[in-house]
Every structure is written in structure tokens, then in C-alpha cells.
Give the backbone structure.
Amino acid sequence: GIQYAYTVQGKEDEAAREIDAYVTKNPSAPQADKLAFKKGDLYFSRKDYATAAAEWDAFMKKYPASPLVPEALFWTGKSQAALGRSDEAARTFTLLVDRHPKSPLVPDALLEVGTLHAGKKNLEQAVSVYGSVEEKFPGTEAAQRAAYEKGVAYRDAGRADQARAQFSQLSADR
């Protein structure tokens, strides 16, 4: 609709106003939650992470039963991480994992938690999180990424033998 046209033109604020007007006028419309969620996307795409996180938070308060809530949590965590709020981001990703354990975003949320630990040099926690992704989601792309990141964390922790073993296992699995 018109929101898309505004977005293509780089007029995210106008698109957000159109979404607000539509959702206010049609709060029970089947697509109202999707449009409200889209507002966060608009701001995230232009790297306005604080506004994106606020929009997804408002979305989750207004539509707590929406199937898009796990995705809103994920992108809120990504926004918080981009803002340097790593502890808050880790809590948000963990909330997604705990409240929506069947969401397809769980492996990626756990990877993000591991990456946040690694970024703060909490390498043992990072290794543990990456190991849980490998264990809980074997054969997935997330498990492969976790295996690699676990090797990096071993290396960064000065555990060269474990890093070599981890990277050797990755090579053997390919």
C-alpha cells in the first residue's frame, strides 16, 4: 500500500504515520498486527535502533498474542545490541528462548547470546552457549555457525588445543 510507496521513497516517518492512522482506524483488522510490527522494521532499516526497539516494544504490548511476538523480541534484541546495550539484548534473546521455545528463531537467538558473551570476553559462557546450540540443533546452519564461533572463543580464551580440535571437526564435517 501507501506505506510501501513511502518506504521506497525513503519516507519512513510518513509510512509510520500511515500505519498509525490505519491501525487506529482499524484496530481489529487482520493485518493490523503485521502493520504495527512493520513500523519497527522501518526504523531498523535506517539504523534508528532506539526507535525500532521502542516500536517493537509498543507492538508487543498492543498485540501480545500475535505470532510475530518472537520476531519482535529477536529484532528488539538486535536493536539493543546495535545500541551497545549487550546485557539488555542478552535478556531479550533469552526471553524469546524461554517464552517461545518452539520458535524457529531460538537457535539464532542463542547464537546472539553467545556472540554477546564473546564480545564482552565472557568466553566460557560463550563456549557454553555455542555448545548448547550445537547439541540442541544438530545439522542446522545455526549449529554450524555455533561450532565455528565456539572454535573462535576457544582460540580467544587461549585454549589453542581445543580451538584446533574444534576447527578440525568442522573441516571433517564438510
